[in-house]
Amino acid sequence: MSETITAMPSTNTDVAGTEQLSMQQALNLALDEVLADNPKSLIFGEDCGRLGGVFRITDGLQAKHGEDRVFDTPLAESGILGMSVGLAMAGFHPIPEVQFDGFAYPAINQIVCQIARMNYRSRGTMPMPITLRVPSFGGIRAPEHHGESLEALFAHVPGLKVVSPSNPHDAYHLLKYAATRPDPAIFMEPKSRYWQKGPVDTTSDDDRLTGARVAREGRHLTLVAWGAMVSRCLQVAELAAEDGIDVEVLDLRWLKPIDTEALARSVGKTRRAVVVHEAPLTSGLGAEVSQLITQQCFDTLKAPVERVTGFDVPYPSGDLEDEYIPNIDRILFGIQRVLEYRRG
User: Fold this and answer.
1) Do the beta carbons of residue 159 and residue 104 sit within 8 Å?
2) CA 52, 43, 196: angle at the middle one, nearest 5?
3) pLDDT, tens only, 172-197
4) Which of 15-24, 30-39, 158-167, 329-338 has the lowest mean pLDDT?
5) Contact (Cβ atoms closer than 8 angstroms) between residue 289 and residue 266
6) Does the pLDDT at position 5 exceed 90?
7) Residues of 278-289 as b/e, b for ≥16 C-beta within 10 angstroms?
8) Residue 251 contacts residue 225 (beta carbons within 8 Å)
9) Residue 222 · residue 264 · CB < 8 Å
10) Residue 143's pLDDT is what?
11) 102 — phi, psi (to 5°)?
12) Contacts of 34 (CB under 8 A, 6+ apart)
């Protein structure tokens, strides 16, 4: 990595209890507090210990909490997740890291056949309180296999919860929430937003953690997104406002389960929707979101739900990311198609 950020540095404080943190800092702080609060929690993965992870999310945690609580593993994702299963069965709360999203494929058997099913298979006697951290999506111009959008794969598996924060405040609170639940959760961190700074209120419990969040109010159309695409949709909404188009941005946050009520409220108000994600179009999570919107708002929709997504090709390496990831122009054209739609 050409740029690294050290853990738990001094931060700027805006108001009482609110700090300006990057998402990297917010995640690091959340993990630090989870380790302090729960002696059964363990953090491990490739380079998670002494180095503090490729993105320095676990930086400083081994020195503070010890090598038996934060440690490195061999370069074997199937082993990392298989060990997580055994630790969970023994009463621990593992918080493993897969170094990059594309490295999760070798561990799919452990995730799908063991982690997702063990509680069901044991009739509730063996919960799997595993929080799998996955640096996700593109935007950092990395080599092949270092940028993927696996949310549809994970969301399709019964027994898994899937969550993706879009800003430092949500990253801090959602990770702490996921890491204290008895269910396995896939925590998809938008790696291109690790260095984004924003206000984080660390003094009070955020009680709005289990559903979607309206990131921007609007009247004419709803943009639905998650992870890194939320920030891009907010940029689009500002540009659309210059032309008098009032766009609402709904940050889905939870990709399994999806907050159907929030979708219905937002699209029921605007009566138009565009779903934006980095994953390929075919069988992407946008298809599920579009169906839920249609099911809930069919009588009031003024246009079919539009999807602006990646293409049906393997996720490209860095040189082609700008062509693959939905950009501002593509999202604006999606908005235009929905606004100009006329029946008949």
Assistant:
1) no
2) 50
3) 999 999 999 999 999 999 999 999 99
4) 15-24
5) no
6) no
7) bbbeeebbbbbb
8) yes
9) no
10) 84
11) -65, -15
12) 41, 95, 175, 176, 179, 180
Dihedral sign (CA 323, 218, 213, 275): negative
Asked if residue 203 lies in contact with residue 16, where contact means CB atoms within 8 angstroms, the answer is yes
Whether a cis peptide bond, with omega within 30° of 0, leads into 316 is no
Q: Amino acid identity, residue 170? A: D
Q: Which residue numbers are catalytic?
A: 146
Show the tokens assigned to 289: 């979101």
Structure tokens at 243: 């032309």
Burial state string for 78-115 with b = 16 or more CB within 10 A and e = fewer than 16: eebbbbbbebbeeebbbbbbbbbbbbbbebbebbbebb
Residue 104 · residue 134 · CB < 8 Å: yes
Phi first, then psi, for residue 136 (nearest 5°) are -130, 165
For 109-161, how does the pLDDT look when each residue is reduced to its tens digit (9 = 90+)? 999 999 999 999 999 999 999 999 999 999 988 888 889 999 999 999 999 99
Q: How far apart are CA 109 and CA 187, in angstroms?
A: 18
